[in-house]
Write a structure and sequence with these properties.
Elements lengths: L1 H20 L8 H7 L1 H17 L5 H13 L2 E2 L4 E2 L4 E2 L6 E2 L4 E2 L4 E2 L4 E3 L11 E2 L4 E2 L4 E3 L3 E2 L4 E2 L4 E2 L8 E3 L4 E3 L19 H24 L8 H15 L1
Parallel strand pairs: 1-4, 2-5, 3-6, 4-7, 5-8, 6-9, 7-10, 8-11, 9-12, 10-13, 12-14
Antiparallel strand pairs: 14-15
Helix pairs in contact: 3-4
């Protein structure tokens, strides 16, 4: 009886998580969410497969996981440990490895991978704390720990531990701040997160402009940048001929 109460409680929690974090689920019945939301279906199937695995039922947990992947596009190993109020938005392409551990109130978007590195045994997949949000296409690899309340930007590759409350972007991922402040709230403003690659390119471009200005002064009289390669080639040619 207690087991059934726990199962019903988990189902209600999963449906409530979908309704709270997916704008498309507003005003939608619980039955429609259960029958139409791939992320919710994948999670419910995983909870059944995980319970069977803990009961040491052979083969069936793997079969459930395989069928779930074929239907929903979400691959969750039966041994993965997942907390309450977990939500996978859209679901397609999500992969959660065998030794992954996920806390409560975690949100994953499509294309997220909680994967391992190499062929080592034992703990080899990420551990996510409570209230973690992982953006589309992010890859979290190895036995890393993502602290409570952390956010991982879209397409970020994380291979090191993430501090609690941090927002991580880039490849490899590293903590950032927006306007000097830590990003707050259950969902990050993905559009306005810093782009470290764009910032690096901008810095290099500014440096090139500065170097061109200095070179123009050395040329004597501010030679336009378009004419500089020809002048440089002419000087190089005279030097070669003189040599």
């Amino acid at each position: 009886m207690k087991r059934w109460k726990r199962v019903i409680s988990e189902i209600r929690s999963d449906v409530a998580a979908a309704r709270q974090r997916d704008p498309a689920a507003q005003g939608v019945s619980s039955f429609e969410i259960l029958t139409s939301w791939a992320g919710v279906q994948a999670l419910l199937a995983h909870r059944a497969a995980h319970a069977l695995l803990e009961a040491k039922v052979p083969l069936l947990p793997r079969c459930i996981a395989y069928c779930t992947r074929a239907i929903t596009g979400v691959e969750i190993h039966p041994a993965a440990e997942i907390g309450n109020s977990f939500f996978i938005d859209h679901g397609s392409g999500v992969v959660i490895g065998e030794t992954a551990k996920i806390g409560d109130c975690v949100t994953l978007y499509q294309g997220v991978t909680l994967g391992g590195t190499g062929f080592q045994r034992g703990k080899r997949h990420p551990t996510l704390g409570d209230n973690v949000t992982v953006g589309s296409g992010a890859k979290l690899l190895g036995p890393i720990a993502v602290g409570d309340g952390a956010k991982v930007g879209a397409n970020t590759v994380v291979v090191e531990d993430v501090p609690p409350g941090a927002t991580v972007v880039g490849n490899p991922g590293h903590p950032v701040r927006v306007e000097g402040k830590r990003v707050e709230g259950p969902d990050a403003d993905w559009i306005h997160l810093p782009d470290p690659i764009a910032e690096a390119i901008k810095t290099l471009s500014e440096r090139i402009v500065d170097l061109e200005a200095r070179l123009a002064q050395l040329d004597g009289g501010g030679t336009p940048s378009a004419e500089r390669p020809a002048n440089l080639q002419a000087r190089t040619g005279r030097s070669s001929a003189g040599g």
